[in-house]
């Protein structure tokens, strides 16, 4: 098996032709999955309108969204990139600690709560973005603010959950 | 010869019952204990399931926030490849053939391998 030369490999399928000049350029995110997961709720907090615009455009152009929604797509990418850039500028250490923890723990958010709290605190203080999981039942603590995570390797966590003061954000 | 009669006061009772000591707790206590143990188990299970639901919702929303960015990047890439393909076709054949009887974007299921690897 291994001696057979692969006849259809991806190497010769590269197509590096750039987009035509008529379509504006945008810098891609260039981020791997763990940093994206770590920053996802901040991206959602800042870019919700752009994201909704884009998804609406895709919805209204079934089958043609790839061409019709390029403009909205560029906005989405620019916004998400701005969030990543801002976090990199002001909270690089906490960000790095959190996404490396995620990378080491199979992308399980509940294994990395202490790092996440530090990141949330820094991001809220510097960028004003807050992590909110929607549809939280009224009588329960949001899961990312609980001090015990049943399924974590160390269920009882050290450190304090970061809860932003409501008076500031409203 | 006098007839053989039972002794005065009758025979002793024949012991046919087994005389084993009753060991362990009373059945009611065992039943109650099992009940308590099981209720504890259900309590822990419910807590665990609810926590897992929370994790799932958190993960789902993180994905929902990311999907537009990921999809936008993918779409741009598909459009880039499509336009490049159309341009190549135009150059080689002189006209663009319509392969599918629809205006929808169809992800290509084939790839034309260039003779030389493009840089």
From TrEMBL, chain A:
Cellular component, GO annotation: mitochondrial inner membrane
Chain ranges of the CHCH domain: 91-124
PROSITE patterns: CHCH
Signal sequence range: none
Biological process according to GO: mitochondrial electron transport, NADH to ubiquinone
InterPro entries hit by this protein: CHCH (IPR010625), NDUFA8 (IPR016680)
Record keywords: Disulfide bond, Electron transport, Membrane, Mitochondrion, Mitochondrion inner membrane, Repeat, Respiratory chain, Transport
Main location class: mitochondrion
UniProt-annotated location(s): Mitochondrion inner membrane
Its biological purpose: Accessory subunit of the mitochondrial membrane respiratory chain NADH dehydrogenase (Complex I), that is believed not to be involved in catalysis. Complex I functions in the transfer of electrons from NADH to the respiratory chain. The immediate electron acceptor for the enzyme is believed to be ubiquinone.
Family statement: Belongs to the complex I NDUFA8 subunit family.
UniProt name for this protein: NADH-ubiquinone oxidoreductase
Organism encoding this protein: Coniochaeta pulveracea
The organism's taxonomic lineage, starting at the top: Eukaryota, Fungi, Dikarya, Ascomycota, Pezizomycotina
TrEMBL record, chain B:
GO cellular component, one term: mitochondrial inner membrane
Subcellular location as annotated: Mitochondrion inner membrane
Swiss-Prot/TrEMBL keywords: Electron transport, Membrane, Mitochondrion, Mitochondrion inner membrane, Respiratory chain, Transmembrane, Transmembrane helix, Transport
Entry-linked Pfam families: GRIM-19 (PF06212)
Superkingdom in the source lineage: Eukaryota
Protein name according to UniProt: NADH dehydrogenase [ubiquinone] 1 alpha subcomplex subunit 13
Family, as annotated: Belongs to the complex I NDUFA13 subunit family.
Function: Complex I functions in the transfer of electrons from NADH to the respiratory chain. Accessory subunit of the mitochondrial membrane respiratory chain NADH dehydrogenase (Complex I), that is believed not to be involved in catalysis.
Primary localization class, coarse: mitochondrion
UniProt cross-references to InterPro entries, sorted A to Z: GRIM-19 (IPR009346)
Organism: Coniochaeta pulveracea
Membrane topology: Single-pass membrane protein
Residues spanning the membrane: 24-43
């Amino acid at each position: 098996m291994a001696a057979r030369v692969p006849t259809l490999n991806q190497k010769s399928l590269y197509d590096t032709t750039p987009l035509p000049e008529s379509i504006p350029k945008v810098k891609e995110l260039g981020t791997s999955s763990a940093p994206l997961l770590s920053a996802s709720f901040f991206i959602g907090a800042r870019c919700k309108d752009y994201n909704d615009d884009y998804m609406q455009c895709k919805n209204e152009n079934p089958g043609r969204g790839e061409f019709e929604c390029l403009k909205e797509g560029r906005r989405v990418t620019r916004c998400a990139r701005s969030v990543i850039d801002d976090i990199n500028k002001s909270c690089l250490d906490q960000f790095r600690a959190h996404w490396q923890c995620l990378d080491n723990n199979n992308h399980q958010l509940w294994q990395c709560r202490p790092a996440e709290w530090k990141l949330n605190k820094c991001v809220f203080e510097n960028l004003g973005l807050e992590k909110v999981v929607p549809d939280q039942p009224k009588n329960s603590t949001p899961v990312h603010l609980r001090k015990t995570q049943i399924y974590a390797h160390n269920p009882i966590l050290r450190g304090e959950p970061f809860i932003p003061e409501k008076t500031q954000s409203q | 010869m006098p007839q053989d009669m039972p002794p005065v006061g009758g025979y002793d009772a024949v012991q046919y019952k087994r005389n084993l000591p009753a060991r362990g707790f009373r059945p009611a206590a065992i039943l109650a204990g099992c009940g308590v143990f099981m209720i504890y188990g259900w309590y822990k299970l419910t807590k665990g399931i609810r926590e897992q639901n929370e994790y799932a919702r958190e993960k789902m929303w993180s994905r929902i926030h990311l999907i537009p960015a990921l999809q936008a990047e993918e779409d741009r890439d598909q459009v880039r490849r499509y336009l490049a393909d159309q341009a190549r076709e135009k150059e080689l054949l002189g006209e663009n053939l319509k392969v599918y009887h629809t205006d929808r974007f169809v992800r290509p299921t084939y790839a034309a391998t260039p003779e030389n690897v493009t840089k």
